[in-house]
Design a protein that fits this description.
Number of strands: 5
Radius of gyration: 21 Å
Structural class: mainly alpha
Shape: globular
Strand content: 5-15%
Largest sheet: 3 strands, antiparallel
Length: 194
Amino acid sequence: MARNGINKRELDKWAKGLVKEANKSLERAARRNRARVPVQFEATTAGGGALSGGGAIESSAHLARLLMWLDAYAQQHPGEYVDVARFVEEHELAEDASVLAFQLEQRGLADLARIFGSGAPHVHLTDEGRVAVHDLKNLQKDRAARLRHTMDAFLRWLYDAAGDRSPADPGLFLDTPGAFFAGTEIPRPPSSRR
């Protein structure tokens, strides 16, 4: 573990130095050519995949699935708002529909119509939400990213499931939210298909 922490620190230090040098170069270029607007970079340690500034949606099984579901609904019912509680009921989730809707709104991926007397707000994808769906669909084709997510999610699940040192059935992982990547289920081995 300590070695990973050192590598991350060194990587962060390198990235900050790179950003600092890039910003200096951009400032010099802006002084030479005042007609252009200077661009500034920011150093981040996020491993990529953050959609619309609010965390990695592709790793959040419920949010990514909700985005894909909203996109499918919008294809059939353009311009209509839909009650997020329908998504929660269809997928038999224990999540609060309002919280899911608010998380999408915070990221700028959905507009909410708060209807008096209704439990969950009604949602409609924004343009940013449509772009996020497009990005998720492209990410679904990235086998390496899917494999990285699957291995990481499985190891987290295994650590939690076998934390008391009792044997855990690896097939049970496929029924957890971690078994989803970019809004779709990870492929199941032929012997474990439902």
